[in-house]
Amino acid sequence: xxxxxxxxxxxxxxxxxxxxxxxxxxxxxxxxxxxxxxxxxxxxxxxxxxxxxxxxxxxxxxxxxxxxxxxxxxxxxxxxxxxxxxxxxxxxxxxxxxxxxxxxxxxxxxxxxxxxxxxxxxxxxxxxxxxxxxxxxxxxxxxxxxxxxxxxxxxx
Length: 156
Known about the structure:
Arc Repressor Mutant, subunit A; two-stranded antiparallel sheet; 7 helices; globular
């Protein structure tokens, strides 16, 4: 459990350890989040959201496929399904979150933050403070991981 004086780096380390030790919890968390999405849909929506935030504009499917080292077009039916379900829209080659997609992402983020905070603190009074710190730490970790995997996404 991090003390209130814990550095951001210590919190990020604790979060990383929790995630590594509880990998099976991710699927359970997505299922119980209330977002109404399955794990692949969560992956797709969160990926679009993160790439949009890091580059300050929506990603193109071909860029995601290139970074995953898969041939262009492999994810077409996957993203077309997310469009058909109303989570994404397409503007030319760009993938955009719809209101429904943004709602799912927020719900997933809230569930993830809540779960991590529960793991890190014991009292409800500490949770409110920890939630904000956890959200910030998750953002930093995600940006760093995305930038490591995708050098052209390094934030400015």
